[in-house]
Every structure is written in C-alpha cells, then in structure tokens.
Amino acid sequence: MFNDNVDERYELGIERIKEIAEAPEMKSEGYVSYFKCVAAFILKMDKLVMDLKAGVFENYSLEELSEHNRSLYEDVIGDAYEKSFANPAYAAGKLGLSEGRLLSFLYVEIRGMIVYAYENRMAEMTALMELFIEVYCVCISTEEDNGRPDYRQMREAVYWYVSDYSDDHMEYRVRELLDPKLDFATRIIMDSDLDDLRYLYRFGEYITDNELKTARYLNSLGEDEIQRMADTFTEGYRIGFELTGKDLSKKKTVNIRYCLGFERLVKAEINNFAKLGLRPTIYRAAVNTINKRLNIKVGYYGANPNRQMDFDHRFDNALYMDGEFVERKTGALRLAYEKNKELAAVHGGPAVMEVFGETPFEPEAKSEALTLDAKQQKLSVKYNNDSGSIVNEYIKGEERSFTIIAYPVPDIGDNFEEIFQGTVRINTLDYNKYKAIQQALIDVLDTAEYVEVKGKGGNCTDMRVSIMKVTDHRTQTVFENCLADVNIPLGEVFTSPVLAGTTGVLNVSSVYLNDIKFNNLKVWFKDGMAADYSCDNFDDEEKNKALFKSNVLYDHDTLPIGEFAIGTNTTAYVFANKYDIVYKLPILIVEKMGPHFALGDTCYSRAEDVYVTNPDGKEIISRDNEVSLKRKTEPEKAYYNCHTDITIPYDEIGRISVVAEDGTSTDIIRDGRFVLPGTEELNEAFSDEKN
C-alpha cells in the first residue's frame, strides 16, 4: 500500500499543501494558524528531501550543519514548545480540547518526516501528507456545514490511517530489527571519517554539544583503550550464550542499540561481532505512533529536543486504540515475522549501550495530554502480552541472549572525563574477586526459608521475601552469581523469589524508573504481588498512582516481584556518591548498588527450561515463580513483558537477614555495611570514601 504510485501521489500532495500554506480556507483563526504552520513544516521537509538528493549539505561546515539541524527542531526546543502545536496544552487552548489533542498528535506524527527525509522513505512521507490533507478537507467541509470542524470525522480519518498502514509500519520495523541489508546507520558508522564530526548530521537526529563532545572525547582515546571497551562489550555477549549453553554459531545477526556520539566505539564492536560471525542491525528509535512504546526510546537516537513533548504524547494511541485495531496490529506483527522467519531464526538478540548523565527529568502532568481509559489499558496489556509471545515464537528465548552496558555523556558535568574513566573501571572490576565474595553470600542465602529486608532512618522498607528451597546442596543453588557477562557491570546475586509469603512494604526516598524520577516511592506487596503504591511527585494522589501505573506497571492492575537481588558493587556506590551522580545513573548500575526488587517477569523469562549453572557448576533452580509456571497451563497469563528494578541504597538499609527453616537468623548487611564473613572486603570501598 505504501509504495503504490508514490511519486505521483507525492507531487499532488505537495501542490495541495502549497495552497494550504498560502491561504487555508478556514474561518477560525486558530485553525488557520495550525494549518499554515504544519503545511509550512511539510514544505520545509520537501526542501530537505531535495537538498539531500542534490548533496547540498556535503560541503557545509560543522557550524552550518548545526544551524540547519537546529532549524528542523526550532519550534519544539525549550520555551518554544510552550507555543507550539506539538504541545497539546497549547493546541487545546487554540483549537478546543478534543480537536487540539488530535491535531497536536497529527503534527508530532508529521514531524517524523525529518527521519523519513534522511532515509529517503518517500512512501511514509506521502502517506502522512495525505492524512494531513484529508483532515484539512474534513475541517473545511464540516466547519462550513456545522460552524466548526467535526472532531468525530477527524478522528475517523486518523483511525483509518493508522489501521490501514499498520501492516506496512510493522513489517518495516521487524525488518529493521532482523535484516542487516537495511543498513542506513551501519553505513554511516562504517563508511564515514569519524574524525570529521560532520558525519553526525547524516543520521537526521537532533544533535547538540552533548553528542559532539562525546564523539570528540572518544576520538581522543587511544586505539587500545577503544578496543578494550569494545572487547568488554562483545565478550559479554559471547559469554551470555556460553553460560546458558546456547549455540552462538547458529546466529548471524546482532541488534546494536546506542546513543549518537559513540560511533567510534560502535565501529570497533561491529568489527568484533564480525569475528563472531554476526552482522549488525541498527535501527532508529521509533518515530511513528504504531511502533512507539510510551516515551521510551528503543534503538539508536540523538538528543531529545523536548522530553516533556515525549511525555505529553506517550498515550497518543488513545485516539485510535480499540479491540479491532489491536487485533489488526497483532495480526500485522505475526505476518511480519512470518515473512521474515528465516531472518528471525538466526537473530541473536540485542547488544545495548545505555547512557547516563542527562539533566534529570521530572514531568509535568497535563490534563490536555491524551490518556488511555480503563478498557484501552486492558487492550494495551493484551497487545503487549500477545506481541511478546509472537516475538518469542520466532526469536526463541531459549536460543537468544543479550548484553547491556552504560557510559556517561558530557551532560553529566565538568568531571565528565573522570567519570567516564571511572565507569570504564567499574565495568572491568576483578571477576574472580567478586565471584568468591558473591559465592559466600549465596552459600548462606541457599539455606534461607525467607529473607528479611528492613530500612533505617526515614526508610520504612519492611519486606519478608520467600526463597525457593534447595533440596540438594551439592548440585543446586537458588541465587545466580551475576558477574560481567550479559549484564555489565558485575556485582549482584539474584533469584526469582517464591511469591507466596513475600509480603511487606518497599520504600525508596528517590529513584529513577524508566526515565521518570519518583519521590518517596512506596509499594506494598501481598504474596509477591503489588497491592498498592504511592509517591510524592504530585499533590494529587490519583496523579501519583497514575504515574506509577503507566510507567512501572505498564497499565497492569498489578505485577509480581520477578526478582530479588543483593547488589555488591560498593565501588560503584562510592564512586557515584563521590561525584554526586547517583540520581543520574541508569538502573543497570544502580541495581548493583544495593538490594533491589524487580516488578514484572523473572530474569529467566521465556527461557525457564534452559539449564543454567553458576561458575561453581551448581544448577540455578529458581528460574520460575508461581506466575511464570502458568506457561504450562495458561500461557496467556504467564508473562507481563516488563521488568523494572527498584533499588534501595545501602545507606537506607538497616538490616538484611537470612532466616533458615529452623529459625536461626544470619545478618548479611547491618546499618548499610556487609557483615557476613567472607564479604567484609566489600566495605573497603566505604573506607576509601572517607579518605
């Protein structure tokens, strides 16, 4: 559908949009302003397409490219967003609530043309222009008939656009994940002179000093240092297959996800993966509503021109989500994987480079922003469950793996280079030292009937965590000895707790979850399931609950505790406090800096039947809980397709104790310090903190 008579449709569309930009045939001043604004943006995109094809930017200086790049995002950056039609509050004020929400959505969707222009995806640009023209025509005709534009007909146009093009969008997204021939980003990375930072503007993403400084810094490092960093990453990926007994030789592709500026490192990683027989797939974070997931970016991306904009539009699918659409989207996903099943069978899984250091984001909750109603929330949950099952059917959990690592970006402050080098050290801590210390922890934890976790000071955490029973201590273990492989840096022991009897309250004074800061977060559990929750982000408790439900529970009514862990990386904790960056760190590092609980699926989700051992050769038997076991009888109820870690800092921990079946209690941590024999060395980092 996308590619039918594209050239002819595009030219016709541009001619009509020129007319709209010059003199919209509307009476309402707000609508005139809107259509002139959006039409002008589309014409700017038309010029961008022509300039890219003509090679206009090839001789631009870095400064000229920066100025042009900023011009593409100028009306949504900083304070400009307050008077942009991309802002649903501004649009609602000018156009009416329902109409403003819809037309704000449409403009944000049309802004995806920036990406399509750089990738020469003319079919997608054409389809968006046609939707814009259709909505414009609806507004003209219904304003003339009724005195004002008809929201119902506008919404219907949006609905059928999204429904009709869902097959095309979904298939292309699946191919981006699986097919190395879709190599837009890979070619930029491998073919560019990375010393000439003008290459960053070839991606079509928003570029700031942050990305430029990152690239400059990586270019200043020696080849050996870059290679060591790349080796840590790709070796972690390889070991992930090895430790779980999966055959990496059967895999042909790896999906690399990263933030722009790290291309020199990514290039070294691509070369390393090639030696493992893997070709990269590198896709962009989604820009269309069909493939977006809330305000979370999955793929490669540049700077975010406005995080509040992403937050405002995270539920734009409320415009069109109903049972029929979800059924069609699910069918489109299955069809896409079926068409590409050979590629899916040889896909190894993601290799992810996260970044941290950006200015913390505390969102404003706007009443004008779209939200899902109760029925739509259930449909969203259903789609996520069904889509997770489809992906696992074609990219089998028992045959794939992953790795993930994180690095700081210059936004973290004046100590960026020191923090970067410190992060590299944390990512390469002594494997054997931690293996022995964590084994001492596991030996005691394997005797537990339950573990008690209690906060101190203002932290009211009081959790009782039920632990699976080991029946043969010679061959079995319950906690995984997590070292530097798939989950870098090292530094935790974790298990899938028994849900029955896992009860209490979890409290954290301040924590970032999925890019949102939660203040004084409390979650109450009963038999391992979230029973209630609160935070202090807003004065309105309902808004607080809604924030947690959408961003952590992902609209489920409840989630189980999928993981209980004790982080051992005191070095990372002290390092983070030294530079006052704890609040800027990603979960990947924070989870190693104290005990944590994960809401959602277990760490062995969809691979529970894979035989897994610790370095000592003992089988990790706690790969299931009462929810995941439903996969054998009620598979639709076994998975939630999410997993969010909530970590309690050491300094907020009063006590973690192992309680054995006979009632004897052994403290692991007391007053924020390790007291179990064999783990005292972990406290040396705290001593260094004082010196």
Ordered list of secondary-structure elements with their pairings:
Elements: H1 6-22, H2 29-54, H3 62-73, H4 88-95, H5 97-110, H6 113-118, H7 122-146, H8 151-178, H9 184-191, H10 209-220, H11 223-243, E1 253-257, H12 263-275, E2 279-281, H13 307-312, H14 323-339, H15 341-345, E3 347-356, H16 374-394, E4 403-408, H17 416-426, H18 431-445, E5 448-455, E6 462-466, E7 476-477, E8 480-482, E9 492-495, E10 498-513, E11 516-526, E12 529-534, H19 541-551, E13 561-567, H20 570-578, H21 587-590, E14 595-600, E15 619-620, E16 643-647, E17 653-660, E18 665-670, E19 673-674, H22 684-690
Parallel strand pairs: 1-2, 1-3, 3-4, 7-15
Antiparallel strand pairs: 5-6, 5-17, 6-10, 8-9, 9-13, 10-11, 11-12, 13-14, 14-16, 17-18, 18-19
> How many domains make up the 3D coordinates?
3
Span of the ends, CA to CA: 67 Å
Tally of helical segments: 22
Secondary structure: number of strands:
19
What average pLDDT do the residues reach? Answer: 94
Hey, roughly how much beta strand do the residues contain?
A: 15-25%
Overall form: globular
Strand order of the largest sheet: 12-11-10-6-5-17-18-19
Please give the largest β-sheet: 8 strands, antiparallel
Return the structural class: alpha+beta
The Rg value, from CA coordinates, equals 26 Å
Low-confidence stretches: none
The residue fraction in helices comes out at 40-55%
